[in-house]
Structure formats: C-alpha cells, structure tokens
C-alpha cells in the first residue's frame, strides 16, 4: 500500500515519538509511507524522522500555524495514496474529509483516554468516516468505543511502545549514605495542565519545609505553555530542588539517570514516558488513570498516587528514599514486566494484525470502485 500519514505537527510529543517504530513496522510489511505534518511547531520530531529516513512534508510555512484543509488535500492528491492514516483530532478530521473526496479508506489513531469536549463532539459526529480506529492501549480502545460510539469491531489495539533491552539501565538507589547522595526523581511530558506538574512543585516545597534532611531533587523534562508559570512558581518559592530541563531528545538516557519516576497526570493514554522509565529499571509513582493503572502494579513495579496531594506524593517519595531495597526490587520488576509485555515479537504481531485489516480495507474499496459503486465499504 501507499500510505499517507497525516499528523498535527512534529512537535515531539507522545503522538510523534513512536513514528519511527510505526513506519518501520509498515515498511517491514512492504508498504510505502509518506508523513504529512500540518504544522512544524517546536519541530523536535524532525530529527527522528530524518534519522529513520522517513519521507515527510511540513505543509504550513508558519511553524505555529496549521495548514488549511485545501493545502492538505492537495498534498494528499499529489501522493496518490491507497490509504490515509491519521493521528490527532485535526489531522483526523482533514483525513476523513480527504477520504470522502478521494474515495480512500481512512485509519485513525486514538492516543488518549480523554478528548476535549469540542473534539469529542466533532469525532463523535464524524466517526463513521474513519473505517478503522487504532488505539494505543486496551484502555483507550474501550474509551474510543464508548465516547465516540464506535462499534467495537471497528477498534483495534496497537501498543505504541516497543521494548529494547539494549537501552541504558538505571543504577539503583543505594541510600543517602553519608547524607550527600541525592535521590534523583524525574518526569517527561508536555508542560500542560493534564500532566498536573504544579503538584510536583508544591510537593518539593513541602519536602523542603518538612523533610529538609532528605536530599531529593526533581527534574521536569519537557516544553509547553505552562513553562513560564512554573519558572515563576519555582522562583517565588525559592526552590533549589527543582529543575526544568526542557525537551529531552534522548529519553532513554534521561530515564537511566533517575532513581524514581513520577507521573501525576489527570488523564493519560498509554504514557510512553512511563514505559521508558520502567524499561530503564526505575520505580514509578503514578496516578492510577488511563493505561497507567493497568501497566503499573501497585506495590510491585511502582506506587499509586491516590489521592494526588502534595502530602501523599511526599510520603511516597520518602518511602522510596528511605528504602533502597524496595527501589531496587520495584525497578527490576518493572523492567522485567516491560521487556516481557512489549517485546518486538509481541508488538510486531499486533502491528501486522492492524495492517492486515488496513490491507483488507484497501482491497475492498478498490474492488467496489472497479465495480463502479464508489461507495464506502466498512470492514466487518
């Protein structure tokens, strides 16, 4: 198949990070893929695509503005795809309309368990224009079927993380020793409200005031609209135990430098960053939302942050800080779990199931067009 893959931007978030692996799976099955980005945004994903040799176009000359549907449709026409694949709401709406006009089947990702109300209403109204919905986790698959009223037969799962045993491993926390060792805790994600990173800053202020003898340092890796607010908050509180380190181009090395990982999100899909930390052998503290509630085994591979308050998070961080054996045990169990559940063979099997469904869509549509019907034929 010739596949045009339409995505909102190449910003570098959770929808863009797995692109090289996704395209590699498609190529391994003999398909040709061209990525169309509606905007560049920060462009952190551009280097990943270039390194993987993935053909791509950025359709808007303004990094912060999305291309129009007219521009997008013209680009899709130029590449004459057999299949249109979409990622994120704007790209999906554009892809759905292009699919109708060009009479091509459409496959659409769902990455998150939560859709903004307006996006949910839009996709609910247009969901039948996508022939096959692909969720990044079983949890998101259930949410997609429920929120968009998509028949379960038209939703399939392709986990967007592939474990790699060769990636760097963390050195387990050995304890405060003479009091000079620092327990390094980190997180990766967009600096946006859903990640709830303000809670982390409040927690570090609580630790400074109530447990000053414990040397715990928090690093927040990521970019986003809340960065100025967080810098102001950190300065106002006079915190020297928090760093905003910006976008991390190498999340594997970043995670391997941690003793603990924390993700206090209000909602999540698969949460690739959590998987990267677990693969590195790092114990995690997460809110039990989205797929994180299925991935983390409370007390075995990590700890659940519930309720999500500064005092509760501080107590969990102190629990890890005071118990190096627990850290080592949880980190090792987390790594074993990820390498077992997300190994290349398992992900490849699931990816090929999805691609076979997509091939059937193309074959069915082509047959209908040759017969002169030209109508949309959904796979059953």
Automatic annotation (TrEMBL):
Keywords: Transferase. One of its GO terms (molecular function) is glycosyltransferase activity. The keyword Chloroplast does not apply. The keyword Transport does not apply. CDD domains: GT4_PimA-like. Residues 186-336 form the Glycosyl transferase family domain. It comes from the Bacteria. Residues 13-159 form the Glycosyltransferase subfamily 4-like N-terminal domain. Pfam families: Glyco_transf_4, Glycos_transf_1. InterPro entries: Glyco_trans_1, Glyco_trans_4-like_N. This is Glycosyltransferase family 4 protein. It comes from Komagataeibacter swingsii.
